[in-house]
Design goal:
single chain, 282 residues, alpha/beta, TIM Barrel, seven-stranded parallel beta sheet, two-stranded antiparallel ribbon, 9 strands, 11% strand, oxidoreductase activity, NAD(P)_OxRdtase_dom_sf
Length: 282
């Protein structure tokens, strides 16, 4: 438990990571408007922020941290857990072996960042069980986290079991089905099962969906700059879903929302289709 009451998980690197994070990608708000909202999130209790070079938000996350320090919202940078991501590098698909060797070199560079103390932990994203198995066979430092789409409408049971067995934590992006974003759907937020549970427990549908991820061992990465919803999304740690409620949620029809077609095809590094990328698993 951190100083603001958010539970933490211990990664295989030995470092602690807050059990919920705030994502900074996909917002249509100008960066100047996002900055004060990130500071507001720190004030509300968020200590885990997810960014990437691709999102264009790394700089404002840094600015928000500096402002939070200046205002005394946090005493040191060490109170925060910041995740950033390296984007895929393009390579000629026909040069399969060089592409694989480049991937292994990239992995080595990530491990070197870890050894040099430039990163407390290293992880991967959108890795299937098959790709994790290959990675673990080659890595000297195992990934601490695998970030994938996970929500009640895309439950990732096989991957969750595999990662748990290997000591890898799963971070869940699109925990609410990317509701409101162009690539998302309403399978989570409009679920009759979740709505019934929410009414019975006097919670919001989003809180029920996030609590389910928590009870499966996942770490939801929420995305909302609405002040009230930011606070509500943190209120998932002092109550539980019953076994009966979890059983009902397991019956929700499965529907993936994320189809990153920009990662595959003739222009991509290694994979011609999403089936190849995810090995038919995730």
């Amino acid at each position: 438990m951190d100083k603001v009451g958010i539970p933490e998980v211990v990664l295989n690197s030995g470092h602690k990571m807050p059990a919920i994070g705030l994502g900074t990608g996909g917002s249509t708000l100008p960066l100047a408007e996002q900055l004060p909202l990130l500071v507001e999130a720190i004030a509300a209790g968020y200590r885990h922020f997810d960014t990437a070079t691709l999102y264009g938000t790394e700089e404002i996350v840094g600015q928000a941290v500096a402002e939070a320090l200046g205002r005394g919202l946090i005493k040191s940078r060490d109170e925060l857990f910041i995740t950033t991501k390296l984007w895929c590098t393009d390579a000629d698909h026909d040069l399969v072996l060089p592409a694989i060797n480049e991937s292994l070199r990239n992995l080595g560079a990530m491990e070197e960042c870890y050894r040099m103390g430039l990163a407390k932990s290293i992880g991967v994203s959108n890795y299937s069980c098959a790709k994790l198995s290959t990675l673990l066979e080659n890595a000297t430092i195992p990934p601490a986290v695998n970030q994938v789409e996970m929500n009640v409408a895309w439950q990732q049971q096989k991957l969750m079991e595999f990662c748990k067995d290997k000591g890898i934590h799963v971070c869940a992006f699109s925990p609410l089905g990317a509701y409101g974003f162009y690539w998302g759907n309403n399978a989570v937020m409009e679920s009759p099962i979740l709505k019934d549970i929410a009414v019975a427990k006097n919670k919001t549908v989003a809180q029920v969906a996030l609590r389910w991820i928590r009870q499966q061992g996942g770490i939801p990465i929420v995305r909302s700059f609405n002040k009230e919803r930011m606070k509500q999304n943190l209120q998932i740690f002092d109550w539980e879903l019953t076994d009966e409620e979890v059983g009902k949620i397991q019956q929700i029809p499965q529907l993936r929302s994320c189809y990153p077609t920009d990662l595959v095809g003739p222009h991509a590094a290694q994979y011609r289709s999403l089936e190849e990328l995810w090995d038919g698993e995730i």
